[in-house]
Amino acid sequence: MVILKNKLLILIIFLLTGCSSIPNNTANSCSIFNERYLWYKHTKKVEREWGTPIYIQLAIIKMESDFDWLAKPPRQKIFKVIPFKRPSSSFGYSQAVRGTWEQYKKETGNKFATRARFKDSVDFIGWYTSKTENILKISKKDAFRQYLAYHEGWGNYKYYKKNKKVIKLAKKVEKQSNIYKKQLSGCKNNLNKNKYIIF
Questions:
Q1: How much is the pTM?
Q2: CA atoms within 13 A on the CB side of 159
Q3: What's the domain range around 55?
Q4: What is the CA radius of gyration of the chain?
Q5: pLDDT (tens digit per residue) in 75-98
Q6: Domain count across the chain
């Protein structure tokens, strides 16, 4: 019985790590989805339900974690040597902070959502960008301003012009989203042909 439990645990860990490894080419949306077809289904569902384009979902994740499911902000250092606490509770694909993640779970009823799961992370981005559109009147297709609000938060968005660093990041997200959009236009038909894959 103990051996069976151990084998089951090893299998679960193997499946989790196998499904959560970083794609080989995170700069290419077609390459990402060729490796992770289920990710395409998840992002397509978010686009359908929240209205957030697939290419913007991917661009935000690319900037936030580069598709690393266990991503965390680097620890601060005392005297530039001694590891100290992390600057925020950001974690996972979306780098959502703990408080906002809890708000997302409460408002969507997705109580078992985890930041280390791609499906939940893109749904979080859909929820967040949808709220940004409602609160700040920013189109879900506006990668630049959506990312500013994503990075700074709804309350601090109005101060973004004082932050040259975040403006630079938002421009990168906008550029990457346009690259993803162009790439997807060339492979979306092939991806959609796999619609009969049910798992």
A1: 0.84
A2: 7
A3: 24-192
A4: 18
A5: 444 545 454 444 467 889 999 999
A6: 1
